[in-house]
Amino acid sequence: MSGIRSGARRAVTTPASPTPHPKSTLTVEEWEAKAPLDDIANKSISAVKAASEIPTLPFKFAAEEAAGSSSRPSTPVPRGGKLQAGLGSRPSTPNIPASASGLRSQFQHALHPKQPVATPQQFYDWFALIDRSVAHSQEAHIRAHLLGVGDYLELCDALLARVDEVDVEVGGMLEGWRSVEEGGKSLQEACQRLLEERDKLVELQEAIGTRLDYFQELEHATRMLNHPGESLVLQTDFLYMVERVDICIEFLKTHRHFKEAEVYLLRFQQCMTRAMTLIRMYFVGSLRALTQDVSRRLSEKDVSTTAQMHLLYTRFTTVSAQLAPLLGELERRARAYPDELAALLAECHSAYFSARKSLLVGRLTEEIRGLDPTRTELVELTRSGCSYLKQLCTDEFNLYRSFFSSGEDQLYQYLENLCDYLYDDLRPRILHEPRLTALCEVCTVLQALMVLDLPTLADDEEDNEDVTLNFDPDKPRVKGLGKLHISQLLQMVLQDAQTRLFFKAQSVIQSEIRYYTPKPEDLAYPDKLVAARKPATGYEMREKESISQLFQLSSLDKRETWFPTLTKTVWVLSQLHDFVQPAIFDDLAQEAVNLCRQSLSAAADMLRAKSPLDGHLFLVRHLLILKEMTRNLDLVQRDAPRGSHDPYGVTDAVSALLSRTTALLPNSIFASLGVSRSDDDALTDVKHGIDLDLKGACESVIAYLADPITTPLRTFITRVTTHHTSPNAPSTPLAAQKWAAQPASEALEAEFRTACARDLRAGVARMRLYLEDRKTVDVLVMHARDRVEEEYVGFRDVVWNMYAGGMREKVLDNEALRGMLREVCEEPGR
């Protein structure tokens, strides 16, 4: 700052050199004109001017003046209430008034000029001295701060030196620690190697000892097996020894590379065989003693049934609690070593079955003899005999399961041998039974006994439960005996009954359907329909309900009106439906339905010889029932679901069949029935054959109702058409000819109305008597009316153009024609 001020001073003293291009100057007036001031600026200038009129002395002089004379008035205070200070911390020098000049000589300051200032240069020199003093006083605190910073730097240098000394000491300590660490690590590694070697030696010792234990077990097993007496198998250590031998055998089989492993393996296997032989000997001996004791007790007189059950089952069950663990070990080892031990287990099975058979044969024979197979009715014999055998087989199965958990095939073979005692008497009776109902009841009894054998969820879980008999988890898990399947024992008798039932049904179909000869009362239609309108008895209603549950035919309330072959077909199939295999039943049902359809067609031909309409309606009625029966039996693909409200189940099919007002062509009928189009009448499918016959019968019924009424009209139209188109027609006018005159046409139209009221009404009434179902009748009647209406419309169009319009008022228009036909065909009382 002193440099800046000296430069300013020098700038002031240096005279200004004239500029080559002097700038234009502004006067005060021009400046004020160009830069006018507002009121606030003027007030500020006035305040600055007033403040600058009273100059203040420098602080130095103000202090000296205050110190020199206390009576001197104080320095005036500026407007701000504070003394104006110069730059830095030094106070400004107060102004010295002229009256105080006498005191300057007494208090001379170092900055005070020694000589009075006379020239500008002296003033500049004195001012420079003052300026340097001010600058020095302003930089005093900076120099003090620099001194403090210097002290701090010295202290930091001392600390750094101390830190370097500590770092050197720490480095020495770290080097010493590293040397100790390396030495300790080497010692630790050496100790670790010693420990590892020790562990390996210990493991090797334990492994050798463990493997030696398998070899040393042979001595213990041999010593135990050499112990005399059959009670050895009852000792607690015996089964433990067998388990240890089994484990040793498994171990040696997986370590055949050991020294003398084959020799020890052979000896262990011999020990196992000896142990299992002891179990077999003890079981056979105990079983023989028990059988002899029970047989002796049973041979005594007056042994009650309860005592017999106790001797035959309770005694054996009690013994099984002691023998079952031993037999379980034998079964388990026989599954593991079948070549060596399967024969021993088979001997135990044989001994058990022989003992049981010797005890049961006599009792079983007496029970069968008590049933009296030669005189008892077949169904009752089957029910009582099979029920007894089922209970006997169940008891035997449960008793066997208390001893063994294997040998299921041998068990069922044994049970089948017991059942043969009844089957030997039952099979001949079944194979020679002539009654189809009795055979069906036999099948019902057998199936009722077998249906109780259906497995439940709990039974499946029990049958599928695995019994772990091996210690090695990788070995297969063996299933124990599950539930007794009595159906396997009754299957042979059921097959015999079903076979006999099938052949008997075939015989009935051939004799009573295919070769059936109708009697006069069988063809007494429609008298049978009229007579059948009386209420049915209770027995007949129950029989109809039982058959309707199978075939779902609501027309069974008039079953006595059926043709006998249809009745026999329904009866035979209802008997066979639940008792033969589905494939066999389908073949038999198709054969029966085809033969029934042929017999119905033959009977319809006989009826048509007396009354064509009765023959056609008879065939339609029975074919509708037969069609619904085949659909409910699932012989072919069904077109409508079961349980339909249509009693015959074919109203929709007939409606589609007759949905056209034109003539019924063969192909259109096939399409309406949903049958593939074919000109081959030799269709082997049951449903196609029925559809063909039904189509023809419906056509015949419609034609028989409409043709007698429309034939005169059609003949008249044909003659008129021929007259107009033939080149050889007579020259006389058409209306002048006798057959075409207006009276003849009026008579023809009157005859048409009479025929509708007489013949069509009678035909529709006969149709309602045969078919009974209102919807089916309405479909056929609708198409007959359409055909009649079509022919009459053609006749009306012809006569309208004749006779100069004379017939226009006498023929029926469309609305009147439909009203007349509707009235004629309407059901009375409807």
TrEMBL record:
* Family classification: Belongs to the COG3 family.
**Which residue numbers delimit the Conserved oligomeric Golgi complex subunit 3 N-terminal domain?**
151-288
Q: For the Conserved oligomeric Golgi complex subunit 3 C-terminal domain, which residue ranges apply?
A: 310-634
Q: Where is this region: Disordered?
A: 1-30, 65-114
Keyword Transport in annotation: yes
Subcellular location, in the record's words? Golgi apparatus membrane
Q: Which organism is it from?
A: Dentipellis fragilis
Q: How does it sit in the membrane?
A: Peripheral membrane protein
- Read off the InterPro entries from this record: COG3_C, COG3_N, COG_su3
Question: Is Protein transport a UniProt keyword of this protein?
Answer: yes
Q: GO CC terms on record?
A: cis-Golgi network; Golgi membrane; Golgi transport complex
GO biological process per UniProt:
Golgi organization; intra-Golgi vesicle-mediated transport; intracellular protein transport
Q: What is the lineage of its organism?
A: Eukaryota, Fungi, Dikarya, Basidiomycota, Agaricomycotina
Provide the protein name. Answer: Conserved oligomeric Golgi complex subunit 3
Polar residues bias spans: 90-108
